Amino acid sequence: MDLIELRRKSYPIAKKVGFLGGSCIFHPFRQDKLTKQWYYSPHFHMIGYGWIKGVAENYEASGWIVKNAGVRESVGATALYQLSHAGVHAHHHTVTWFGKLAYNKMRVVPEVPEEEVCPLCGGKLSKVAWVGEGVCPVPEEEGEYFVEPSGWIPSHGWG
Quick one: average pLDDT of 106-134? Predict the structure, then answer.
């Protein structure tokens, strides 16, 4: 089977043993513990959530081995390790999302940008450009400062 077929088959297998959803990371090779040589052995690592059960029955029915690595101390570190030696393909994603965390399940409420206003009068702030004489009087450190308006003009997108 090719990568796409294998991955497509892995999702229902994961669901059958109680894995509700998460990321699926493809690994095309394994390393022999004695010789340290890499050999072709396509498999997937899944990071997500659920309660894994019935792996022996699943193996008997499907021939697919499912291992539960348990609760991880750091999900980020686990993902970093899995990605450090994952398979990269020119036309297929190395990581895919499925189940309860699939792409079509994600709902993002757009963030409404907060309008910046003057802390004194509450008026809308606008970009300005320095056209006065000498060096621009902008302080080195970030913060709120009040400066004389002479020498500043509305920038209208330039400057």
Answer: 87
